[in-house]
Amino acid sequence: MPSRLKPWSxxxxxxxxxxxxxxxxxxxxxxxxxxxxxxTSSSAESQMATAAPVRDYVAVASYEGAELAKTDTYxxxxxxxxxxxxxxxxxxxxxxxxxxxxxxKGGQAEYWTVRVGDKELVDAVxxxxxxxxxxxxxxxxxxxxxxxxxxxxxxxx
Length: 157
Fold this sequence. Notes:
Elements: H1 14-17, H2 22-31, E1 57-63, E2 66-71, E3 75-77, E4 80-83, E5 93-102, E6 107-116, E7 119-127, E8 143-145, E9 150-155
InterPro entries: DUF427 (IPR007361), DUF427_sf (IPR038694)
Protein name: DUF427 domain-containing protein
Domain DUF427: 61-147
């Protein structure tokens, strides 16, 4: 009888091969200081959020004096601020054909070029329209900036 397991599920980790229980594996990962990097799907923090939290700070993305995005309902992940799509000035963005795949988030990113006057930053904005990983599902359709775009958090007044 052929195996019904997918090829990658036949592999065993060093911990599985030695019979180490799940709790002990988690304890070892925590002891190595990697728990934030490898959260289990049962942790409260990995549950999909339904709405971005309102913050005490306003996140602002700008380039060459032009405001690209501004919101107090943003997410932070992987050292980046993710802005809701409706907070972004799409008049200054031009979609490109560039795509990339993020294995951690489980999705393909799409990119935009920022144009302000005669200056432009190619592929400086990205978004994931569809994500497979539940830990990152809340970032779908949010926009992140890099490559010269200034992103800062300013206290609300």
